[in-house]
Amino acid sequence: MKKFWLIIIGLLLGRWGAAQQTEEPFVHPGILHTEDALMAIKQAITENREPWANAYALFLKDRRASYQYDVNGPYDVVSRMGSQPNEPNLHKKEFEDDCLAAYYNAVQWRLTGDQRHAAKAVEIMDGYARELKEVINHDRELMASLCGHLLVNAAELIRHSDADWDTQRIAAFERMVREVLYPVIAEFATFANGNWDAACIKAMMTFGVFLDDREMFDRAVTYFYKGEGNGRLTHYVINEAGQCQESGRDQAHTQFGLGCLAEACEIGYNQGLDMYGAAENRLLAGFEYTAKYNLGFDVPFSTWLDRTGKYYHAEIAHHDRGKWRGVFEIVLNHYEKRAKLNPFYTRMVVDKIMPEGEPWTADHPGYGTLLFRSPN
């Protein structure tokens, strides 16, 4: 009943165009997954129901979902790019895989009850809590947000369970999040294309829930509604038709930005906020527009100069058209199942690519058919 009233309050605030904020205690676990949602998935797998059984079989093929995963790190310094052009990055792929492995093993722990999965997630989290000191170079906001989002989702699932992770080690992990990851994204990324801001939003919300830091969480939610940069919802999905700030750049980055905003909305939903419904379901408009175009249909396009004044697009981009990222199940589940709307083109995409598989690098959680399609 409490969650019902929180959602009603969120709907009213969204209609008024205000940032949704509440002083209610955080729901735990309550980032990408709640206890009820995890138990429903577990039951669907146990009963061999489709499409969850097939989606879970695909998930099990990912080596990062195994408790036998060989950890690459931990590393003290990581980067997505070198400090100079053509200079190698510092452990980009290795760090991404470690963060995905922590998250996937935490999910496995909650679905199977096998302590070996919990131990693997804890091994990875403890290692980076102890060793990670810096995220550096040009793409640091992306690395801290994308990998941090996954790693902290793992921590949320382990912490709020009966896994063996004691308070001292949890405190060390919290310090790493506050002192290493959060400072990198604290001012968002107003200088960049909107996928950067969107990544920062979802990560800051994630950190806020895990740390029980209401101020941090509310900063991210407020930015989603009122932020200066390209990642604010109505700066990313620029009009009611659903055109996106990066629609004229390429289709891969457009799906990336939309997916990050969808994950932010899912976190909000799990905390009683209806960010999905903001600006008259503007996020859905963005997904429908992008899905329709990538399915081969024509869509309207307006010339657009972004908020930084650096990125001008005169026509919609053909680059990566028809290449799909696994970011559609999460929004289909909300708008079709919860909101009872008709996301026609998003449904067409999901029917075409189902089951969603592994993510592109560590941009998203991946495996959306398993993780974000509600069995109930």
From TrEMBL:
Key words of the record: Lyase, Signal
Pfam families referenced in this protein's UniProt entry, alphabetically:
Alginate_lyase
- Domain (Alginate lyase) spans 78-293
Signal keyword on record: yes
InterPro entries annotated for this entry? Alginate_lyase_dom, Chondroitin_lyas
The cellular component terms of Gene Ontology attached to this UniProt record, alphabetical and capped at eight, are: periplasmic space
* Gene Ontology MF terms in the entry: lyase activity
* Origin: domain of life: Bacteria
Question: What is this protein's name?
Answer: Alginate lyase
Question: Which species is this UniProt entry from?
Answer: Parapedobacter koreensis
